[in-house]
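Incident review: delayed structure delivery

Summary: a single-chain prediction request sat in the queue longer than the usual turnaround. Root cause was a stuck worker, restarted by the on-call engineer. No data loss occurred. The affected request and its eventual output are reproduced below so the record is complete for anyone auditing the incident later.

Affected input:
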Amino acid sequence: MSGEHKGEALPLAGANPDHHTAGTRKPGFSLAGKTIWIAGHNGMVGQALLRRLKGEACTLLTAERKALDLTRQAEVEGFVGEARPDAIIIAAARVGGILANSRDPVGFLTDNLAINLNIARAAHQADIDRVLFLGSSCIYPKFAPQPINEDALLTGPLEPTNQWYALAKIAALKLAEAYRCQFGRNYIAAMPTNLYGPGDNFDLEGGHVLPALLRKADEAKSRGAGQFELWGTGAARREFLHVDDCADALVLLLERYTGIDPVNIGFGEDIALIDLAHLICR
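Output delivered after worker restart:
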């Protein structure tokens, strides 16, 4: 599925695209007349990117999973070599909750490594100079101060329950840096915070914390219960961002960011989960 749409890009309020500008500097990237491949377009972030970019004067390139297995190197290289997009946003990943991660650590590590390795190699071979890698807030140490700063990366142990997914994402960020250092590629990386919005997963075992709490509250109300269970003490703090705001930031970075360092995408404030639960109950 691909399509061409025209419109005007709006900068994200308060964003500083020149933050973290170490390394080789290159001109900004114009979307006009370009073909952008959104790898993982059916996911929550991918769908938000499609909504955000549909008004731009660019062609959006997508591929269904049944037609392109991103974990297979030959398929990815064939697709990229034929399509020759001008830029790639890697929103594809194998994701799951704590239970899924604990049951298949090898799968979560190897599949996510393969997705990023295959796309990066194919992009380089096709001489595509603009690739945006997506990390995750789980790449930071378990006890990193909140809200998390980029400098916290690799300063402590990871959360054990999703460390395999996190390790693959860390490798992807370093892969972007390696291609820049060795080949001068204009590959960049961004780490969104905890996202919510259209297309979210409300499954109690595999879903994100915010939709899971919303579901718990809704089901408790439907039962006429005056309370619902909150995991843990509720003291843990999380930062949240609407997925459409994340898409705005990603497009801004794609157009204007040329630094070597990965960039956090977030709201800048966090909230204790117990306070979030009380807010939902209102």
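Verification: The chain has a mean pLDDT of 87.
Action items: add queue-age alerting; document worker restart procedure.
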